C-alpha cells in the first residue's frame, strides 16, 4: 500500500482518477460492489471513493449530456499554471484553465497534441491517492495513441523526471491504438484498476450490468482486460 505523501508525486506522476457519469448514485452501486469502495460527498458536487478508509478515486455528475462518460487521469504538478503554459507551447491544448477545487488543491483539464484528454492536479491538502497498486485501487494508466513517437516526445519533455529520472517508477505507458482497439478509436487514456483475477473481475462487471470490450490479454506490465461500467465508462482490470 502506498501511503499518501506529497513527496511521492513527482511532476508527471499519475496521482488521481475521476469518473464523469450521468448517474452518480448508479456509479456508487456499481463500483461499491465491484471494488468495495465507500463514498462521501466532496466540494464541487463530487463524491470521493475510499478503499479501507483511504481515498482512491472520485465520481462526478456529467452536467452536459454531450460530454463523454469517461474515467480521467490526473498528473501531479507543483504549478498547474506553469504546466498549462508548457503544454500549450508543446502543441497541446488547455480545455479548462487552473481553478481551485475547494481547499484541496488546483485542477486543470488539458489535451496532448493528438487530443487525448487528461487532468492536472496541484495538491494542497490532498496530494493524491491514499492507496494504489492493490486490489480495487489505481494500478496503471495507458495512453493509446496513433503516434507513439510524438507522444513520447511530448510527455518525455513535460514529465521527464517521472518517466526517466533516477527514481522513476512510472505508472504510465504509451502504445498504438491498434494494439488493442480498432484503428479508428480516438487517442485516449485508459485507467487500470488492480485485481488479483481479471477474469473473475470481468465476470463481476458483466453481472453488475457492464460489458467486456477486450478480454484478458498480456502486456509488458501485466494481464489486462478492458471493460465498461453500466453507464459506458471504459476502464481496465489489471493483474501485475
TrEMBL record:
Source organism superkingdom: Bacteria
Record-linked SUPFAM superfamilies: Glyoxalase/Bleomycin resistance protein/Dihydroxybiphenyl dioxygenase (SSF54593)
Keywords: Hydrolase
Gene Ontology molecular function: hydrolase activity
CDD domains noted in UniProt: SgaA_N_like
VOC domain residues: 13-123
PROSITE patterns linked: VOC
Name by which UniProt lists this protein: Hydrolase
Source organism of the structure: Streptomyces caelestis
